[in-house]
Amino acid sequence: MKSFTRDRAALFWTLAFPLIFVVLFGSIFSGGNSDRTIGFADLDHSAGSAALQSAFDSIPNVKLVDGSEPDLLAKMRKGDVTAVIVVPTGYEATVTAKQAPADVTVYTDPSQSAADGATRQLVGFVLSEVNQAATGLPPAVEPSFQPVQTTDLTFISYLVPSILGMSLMQLGVFAAIPLVADRQKLILKRLQATPLRRWQLVGSNVLMRLLIAVVQTAIIVGVGSVAFHVQIAGSWLLIGSLILLGSLAFIALGYVIASFATTEESANGMTSAVQFPLMFLSGTFFPIDAMPDALRTVARALPLTYLGDGLRQVMVDGTPFSPLWLCFVVLIAWLVGCFTIAAKFFKWQ
Amino acid sequence: MSTAIRGAADPVIRVEGLKKFYGETRAVDGVGFEVRGGTVFGLLGPNGAGKTTTVEVLEGLRTPDAGDVHVLGVDVVAHPDQLKPRIGVSLQTAALYPRLTVVEVLDLFRSFYGHGRPTDELVELMDLGEKRSTRTQNLSGGQRQRLSVALALVNDPELVFLDEPTTGMDPAARRALWDIVLGLKAEGRSILLTTHYMEEAEVLCDRIAIMDHGRILEEGTVEDLVSRRFKERAVRFDTIDALSDVKLSAMPGVTSVKHEDGAVLLYTSDVPATIGAVLDAAEVAGVEPANLAVRRATLEDVFLDLTGRALRD
């Protein structure tokens, strides 16, 4: 009902934590592959090797560094370059002779599998162009890359609604901790001796959390669209009702935890026990379709799966995992279920 | 100041046959008493006597297993919500939001009522001026108690419940609180307090009920309780081994002999004769009675006599 703006530290973390997630993952996944530095050791110093070098250089995102073979290998060990290409002496001669294939050595680091794979592809691509140019024949098959349907669904735009869902989940589930703390400190008992009604107390707590949910949404969506150009498609009415319903369902879940936790410590433990599986099994960080069957079955029962899925569908036209109406139905079911349990078992003293 | 000053004859609290059990434990086992308006009533007893449970039923915080409880004319069990705006409550353990400041807590609690006393007035009354912007988690035990009492007064209540209000306070703070309680009474308010300090009860309470094991053993004014049990005065001195209880009880005027903290208490109807006999007997034994004193029986004596043990066990 009235001013419950205590606990400034918790407030800060509620708002900052998801933000850190967005920024962190956003930077990793959107800008991560921009700079690939490759060492290029040209021992042949011929027109042919120069052509090869410019072929590599022309690839966007690739920066070539000249140097001697041992120098470049040392740099690679230090992590300054991701791979080293060595063009041996006599490269051009071998290529023009067309008797045997010219030998180009590529050093990569298999322990960095993603970078390793990308380098192999890149080198293979360039060399096939060179090969093809050398043979003078037109390519038999040429891929033509056409972006399809999932227009802008980069990982970050998958992530923004997911993290919003996760934040709402945490916001709700964490309702348990201050509630149990207040009970343990007998504050709830003291409040009972005032004319303040229980529904007013619960109402003010829920209202406060919903307000934070709105602020959270604004921050996450704001950062997502300003910093990472995530397009928010879809109706704000639908988004709003999903957020409202999701928040309520998770606050109810928080009250269920508060019904069974007796001390602040046990509330902390139970909250973690609930929120971590929700966080990782509900498709927040990677799609549920990528999970093994057993986990997918679990995911299918979790409310965050449906909140995240619903938000992705509505906000960024994400591929549906379940139809939107099912998202609403499951969230309502969780809300009603948790509310019933909490109403039955919650103790004020 | 006070919203309603009731006639001294109207009981502000009427309790009959109150019972509250926790499983096998009979926390309150048939308690009944009345408190008249404008008076201070004390529930006195050791820890675990059932004082707090009784008070919490009266405050509407617990539902009794049996009994009839009327506070300010309201049936507490049936209509606790009618009572709550009119009473002030200080729980045994001060229950405060740790991160709010003194003034914030007072303002918050005041917002629960449609009426009340200005926060500044309460801060001054409870001498919390220096601490008004301090978070409650950083207050000392005594300061928390004072804030808890201040919270009991935010709504300008007709009846104030103070459960062990001076626990954890130093003697000066305790005396300051006594003045506040007497001030509340002077304003026409009624006060129910629990305590295990005899002195506190003697100073503050118009009437007292002594509780032990969930029952009221004796009830009345301090004067009543003492004189009902002890018409005599007590002659007190440090224990002298040579004087056996048999010898002591044979002395003139002595009606009973008690021992307390290394001292002997001789209850007597003839103080000079008893003192003379004690001095004579001590001289024969070759010792001088140390800390010889005469005193009226106190509540402490009453409690000792009722329960066979000291209150602070």
Question: How would you sum up this structure in a few lines?
Answer:
Helices cover 65% and strands 6% of the residues of chain A.
Structural overview:
The complex is a heterodimer of chains A (349) and B (313). With 349 residues, chain A is mainly alpha-helical. In chain A, 65% of the residues lie in helices and 6% in strands. Chain A folds into two domains: 8-28 and 154-345, no CATH class; 34-135, abc type-2 transporter like fold (3-Layer(aba) Sandwich). Chain A has 14 helices and four strands. Chain A has a four-stranded mixed β-sheet with strand order 2-1-3-4, sandwiched between helices. In chain A, helix 9 crosses helix 10. The two termini of chain A are 21 Å apart. Mean pLDDT of chain A is 78; it is low at 1-9 and 147-152. The longest helix of chain B has 16 residues, at 171-186. Chain B folds into two domains: 11-226, P-loop containing nucleotide triphosphate hydrolases (Rossmann fold, 3-Layer(aba) Sandwich); 231-296, 2-Layer Sandwich (Alpha-Beta Plaits). The interface between A and B is medium-sized, with 20 and 25 residues.
Residue runs with pLDDT of under 50 for 5 or more positions of chain B: 1-8
Kindly report the average pLDDT value of chain A.
78
Number of strands of chain A: 4
Radius of gyration of chain B: 23 Å
What is the overall shape of chain B?
elongated
How helix-rich are the residues of chain B, as a percent range? 25-40%
